[in-house]
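Reagents: none. Just compute today. Winged helix-turn-helix domain-containing protein.
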Amino acid sequence: MSPFSEGRPSLSELLVDRKALTLSQARALQLAAQGLLQAPKRRARREDVIAAIQRMRLLQIDSIHVVARSPYLVLYARLGDYPQAWLEEALENGRIAECWAHEACFVTAADIGSHRAWRAQAQSNHWADKHAARARDANLQEMHALLERVRTTGAVRASDFERAERAASGWWEWKPEKRWLEAWFASGELMVTRRERFQRVYDLAERVLAKLDPPFDGALLSRSTTELRQHFILDSVRALGITQARWIADYFRLKPAVDDRELAPLLAAGDLLSVQVAGWGSAAYVHRDHAALLDSAYAGRLRATQTALLSPFDPLVWDRARVRAMFDFDYTIECYVPAAKRRYGYYVLPILHRGRLIGRLDAKAHRAEGQFEIKALFLEEGIAPTDRMVAEVAEAIAAMAAWHGTPEVRLGRCRPASLAPALRAHWRR
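Predicted 3D structure written out:
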């Protein structure tokens, strides 16, 4: 039962007379919910990896590693210096699991049941499902033979199978066994039991589910489509901190889009709170779990002090429309854009500084040489670098480079040009 029921006014009703949040206050609320408002106050612990994924509700996986691979970068922005091996340990120990959500993602063991139930009800329209269906249609007999091999001999890697002919890249150009493993993974018969050098090791879902901590709750599989959709809507709002209805569906790739009408019952139940943000023509929504954060935002007590380099696949920035409205930051992941059409570079990291996205840098780690190369660094138009900004950005770059094992920073061109000597002067101290 809601604590705001039984004749008492709901928190949403109590908020009616309040002034609209400023955009700065809304940003602070979103950063707080995402774990990016302030730098961590202590050294990271293993359990913090689980807590960070639980806070975000998912951690997107991407294998590009011109810098550290994206999931490690997303965690680093929230945890600071931590051993990357902790993520693989959490997977092997059953604290987290892999599934298709926003894209391929890590989720906590507590959340995997809802994702499996959603996909079992064929509610996902993800591209991975379409490729999996094509693989089953064309090679069902061979796929069943592969599944039987896993059942009788144990977990396998794609590299356990020889490639008959050389392929280029992409799902459809993988060797057949890799496509079949991924198809069984997409449909739920196989799961990822661990990773070796970041490569998936597949095993029967029943064996992976048996080792989860907390234990897998099979009762989740009986939840209705409506219940599951509401679950993911609420999880999206909780993870985002504050959001418009139109941004909700992207977080878990829900279809159809979420609108204000669908959210009305959740407001009535007290699960969501409706607030206004100055300059927004639409209502904003906050999860009831963030009521205290919302109160702090209204009171101006959420102070953004964090400076961090963000992964291109960080949930704070992956929705272009949302990040433009929230942070006035126009961002495209350009590693998938032809080189001639890139504006900023191949692997561009947004720069978060004290509640604003102030710029971006194109980075590459040269591991053998121990060098962290910044090919280019751009501040946003209208951002004037202050001494404090330069010092904190320089420290954030140096700290990431050291954590990455490439402590020598090599800086290319900057906009404005005066930023380059200021950064280099800081690193020489």
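The first strand starts at residue 59 and ends at 60.
Action item: order primers for follow-up constructs.
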